[in-house]
Amino acid sequence: MANTLMEGKKRPDWVNLVLAICLFVSPWVIGFAAETAPSWNAWIVGIMLGALAVAALSAFAEWEEWANLVLGLWLIASPWLLGFVINVNAMWTNVVIGVLVAAVSLWAVWGYHHPHAHA
């Protein structure tokens, strides 16, 4: 039972790791690798998300989930703040992955503060 509970607590971190990988490869897969701002944004934030996910998988800390939330919100706002909103593919990639990262991070924080909610 305890092992199942620990796996349930790590599930958001696995999801964020997959999202980090998706974000990192998105410039090549979606086709905006030639554009500097959205590509570097995806690569840098993807690495940061991946590092936080791996750190959280090894030893959970609530601050990692809050940092993921900030990165998710950054992804949502970055097309406008970095000026690549005209590239619809890059914009929607950032917005969708940002919403997913933010939601997963909030799920992890909720589970941390309400451990019996997921049982």
Automatic annotation (TrEMBL):
<keyword id="KW-1133">Transmembrane helix</keyword>
<feature type="transmembrane region" description="Helical">
    <location>
        <begin position="14"/>
        <end position="34"/>
    </location>
</feature>
<dbReference type="InterPro" id="IPR005530">
    <property type="entry name" value="SPW"/>
</dbReference>
<feature type="transmembrane region" description="Helical">
    <location>
        <begin position="67"/>
        <end position="86"/>
    </location>
</feature>
<feature type="transmembrane region" description="Helical">
    <location>
        <begin position="92"/>
        <end position="112"/>
    </location>
</feature>
<feature type="transmembrane region" description="Helical">
    <location>
        <begin position="40"/>
        <end position="60"/>
    </location>
</feature>
<dbReference type="Pfam" id="PF03779">
    <property type="entry name" value="SPW"/>
</dbReference>
<feature type="domain" description="SPW repeat-containing integral membrane">
    <location>
        <begin position="12"/>
        <end position="106"/>
    </location>
</feature>
<keyword id="KW-0812">Transmembrane</keyword>
<keyword id="KW-0472">Membrane</keyword>
<protein>
    <recommendedName>
        <fullName>SPW repeat-containing integral membrane domain-containing protein</fullName>
    </recommendedName>
</protein>
